[in-house]
Amino acid sequence: MIARNRTGIGNCGFVLVTVLWVLAILSLIAIGFGRRAMMDRKAATYTLDHDKAMFRARGAVERGIAELRNKAIIDALYLQAGRTSYAQRWARPMDLLAEGGYFAKGGAGKKNDEDRDVCEYRIRDEESLICINSVDETFLTGIKALTPSAIRKIMRWRGGDPDTNEVGQGFQTIEELRNIEGIKDDNWFGEDDAPGLKDLITCWGDGKINVNTATPEVLELIPDLADGVVAAVVSYRAGPDGELFTADDRDFSDVGTVSTQAEISGDDMQSVIQYCKVDSQFFTIRGVATLRQGKVRATCVATVFMQPPNATVIKWREEFLES
């Protein structure tokens, strides 16, 4: 009888241990499924945030295109037709969230400078830069970052090589310059006291530089430009307050007025007439949108050819950046 009871107790103990093991395994499975579900939910949330940020960035670019389309109408109203400058409305950076009175943190009408998200666009005039596909060899010779060997390869890339029947293809992106032997990282990125090729060169345009939008560094590279001309041009553009990108900025209505408005003599105007213009047709719009106080960041970049009232997108690029 005693042996029989011990056997029963032993069987009960085995069953109890087995049940406990089964419960432990089921608990682990449940925890695993729960963790997986939580990870899937988090991934889905971030995917939704990425998509939302990208849609906002695309919308910012579309808004920039609309501003460029409206440029002809606004220019006519303000008697600015026939010229392009950063003193005009299209050139003002715009945060669409701020414009609409809504900020990502704090709700409508409230602002937190450190934490709020953005949905903004900036427009760059591509013809404020040096067109690597159209500018003449004399101009390229004045760019210190380009060696004679690199210039020959650039001209061959553009026009081909008759000796080998190689057909010129031109540069589709400025990054293709980095494939040319002799162009080093320092030449491309620049140094503390000088911009690199990436800040001076474009693939778009007819080879002439917009004197209303070009930076001083670009203007200084114009061949045979006399000393003081760049300073005079920039000073006139800056307006009475002496600062660019402010409300009193001015521009040149045509190349001929550079002589009178910037007080440049006739002899010094030859290079300006040869290499400059006052209107542009190629623009790059960069739309940026952030969510989660900047942790999710989407960027959309479009290059547009403007022939008012038409705008043709000739290049489009999108990317995500996550901090």
Description:
- With 323 residues, this protein is of the alpha+beta class.
- It has one domain.
- Helices cover 40% and strands 20% of the residues.
- About 3% of the residues have low confidence.
N- to C-terminal distance: 73 Å
| Residue windows where pLDDT falls under 50 for at least 5 positions | 102-110
Write down the secondary-structure element order.
HEHEEEEHHEEHEEEEHHHHEEEE
Number of strands: 15
Please state roughly what percent of the residues sit in beta strands, choosing from under 5%, 5-15%, 15-25%, 25-35%, 35-45% or over 45%.
Answer: 15-25%
Helical content stands at 25-40%
Query: What is the oligomer described by this structure?
Result: single chain
Q: What topology, given as strand order, has the largest sheet? A: 1-4-13-14-15
Mean pLDDT: 84
Rounded to an integer in angstroms, the radius of gyration calculated over CA atoms is 31 Å
Count up the helices.
Answer: 9
> SS-based structural class?
alpha+beta
How many independent structural domains?
Answer: 1
The main sheet comes to: 5 strands, antiparallel
Shape by Cα distribution: elongated
Concise structural overview:
The chain has nine helices and 15 strands. The chain is α+β, with helices and mostly antiparallel strands and 323 residues long.
